[in-house]
Amino acid sequence: MQGRSSCNLCGPVYKPLIFMEKSVLPPIPAKRYFTIGEVSDLCGVKPHVLRYWEQEFTQLRPMKRRGNRRYYQHHEVLMIRRIRDLLYDQGFTISGARNKLQELVQSERDRRRAAGDALIDIDLPDEDGVESDLQDDAQAVADTSLLSLEASGSSLDLLRKELLQIRDLLSESR
């Protein structure tokens, strides 16, 4: 299909109309931390774009370790997918996406307060923009511990390795 526009110098110009299909993103694996390369593949966004989005969206704050290497958590991958959808699929500007994301966060916060949820969702930043996810992490570890009692030996080993990685990450961030 051709679109027609006019140029003051050369008359009518025909441009091909391009219809973008919504890309199907791969499922997010059940991991605690993702590198920037993994997030790039999971979200269909180049790493330099992810670094730029960190500057534009205050809610997006990956953990940084040695050499400023970024490690994203599951909720941040979901947020990046949401940002990608707003920018690429729905056609928002950066400013518009930032405002829409703020509205979504506020409406989710209001919904949770109305429902009387005691825990703070790790996806929602505090008033100062810093996420407080310590209660959620403690609850997740407690839930995981209860589930792991019923798990096989290999699952316990995998859980132990993940908990050691979390401990190492937390000790380095201090």
Detailed description of the structure:
With 174 residues, the chain is an alpha+beta fold. The chain folds into 2 domains: 24-128, Orthogonal Bundle (Multidrug-efflux Transporter Regulator, Chain: A, Domain 2), CATH 1.10.1660; 137-168, no CATH class. Helix content is 52%, strand content 12%. It has helices at residues 36-43, 47-56, 74-89, 94-115, 134-148, 153-172, and strands at 2-7, 11-16, 33-35, 63-64, 70-73. The chain has a 3-stranded antiparallel β-sheet. It has a two-stranded antiparallel ribbon with strand order 1-2. α3 packs across α4 (94-115). The termini are far apart.
Per the principal axes of the C-alpha atoms, what is the gross shape?
globular
As an assembly, this protein is single chain
Largest sheet: 3 strands, antiparallel
Q: Which regions contain 5 or more consecutive residues with pLDDT less than 50?
A: 13-21, 122-151
Query: How much helicity do the residues have?
Result: 40-55%
**Amino-to-carboxy terminus distance:** 58 Å
CATH architecture of the largest domain: Orthogonal Bundle
CATH topology term of the largest domain: Multidrug-efflux Transporter Regulator, Chain: A, Domain 2
Name the average pLDDT. Answer: 75
| SS field, number of helical segments | 6
β-strand percent reads: 5-15%
Number of domains: 2
Spatial strand arrangement across the major sheet: 3-5-4
Find the structural class using helix and strand composition.
alpha+beta
- Following the backbone from N to C, one meets helices and strands in this order, namely EEEHHEEHHHH
What is the CATH C-level name of the largest domain?
A: Mainly Alpha
C-alpha Rg (nearest Å): 21 Å
Total strands: 5
